[in-house]
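Hey all, quick one. A colleague (J.T.) asked me to put the zinc ion job into the tracker so the inputs and the structure tokens live in one place instead of scattered across chat threads. No bug as far as I know, just bookkeeping. Sequence used:
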Amino acid sequence: MTNSTFQIRQLGDPILRKMAEAVMDITDNHTQSFLDDLLQFVLDKKGMGIAAPQVGISQRLFIMSSRPNSRYPSAPEMEPTFVINPEIVWSSSEIEKDWEGCLSIPGIRALVPRHTAIKVEYTSRTGESIQTEFFGFLARVFQHELDHLNGKVFLDRVENSLDIMMEQEWLKLISDNH
Ligand SMILES: [Zn+2]
């Protein structure tokens, strides 16, 4: 499969509302080449992350690919991370609202409340069991992507429709703030 065969699923597509299935054979060739293609795809799209259901694969895996760009100048630079069969095992009581967007909901931004710190477990692409913590922006990305595996999107968590903006207006707002 080459990444040109991926088509991003947009809000309304039922696959975005399904509970994704656990990944069984992480190291098999098919899964590994899917992971390579998905990585290339999210880098091309300059996404901070992407979950498999967003390209029509209802499996419990996502990529975190945070790096600074014009929309998120303060995004932490991280090696793209493959997160398979993730769980949040602890989350902070502290919650913070910040802006999110989604490749599956183009043109819209919203303020979304998320836990500021989480402890997580997942399997790496080599099949290793990982336990780690994320804070702030990366905790946000993890929670956003995990939601995709559970049939949720960021708009479901928005508390007030006044917290939703069109991207063009949001871009004006963030450029005023810099
Ligand atoms: Zn998303």
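Adding what we noticed when we looked at it: The longest helix spans residues 29-44. The two ends are 41 Å apart (CA to CA).
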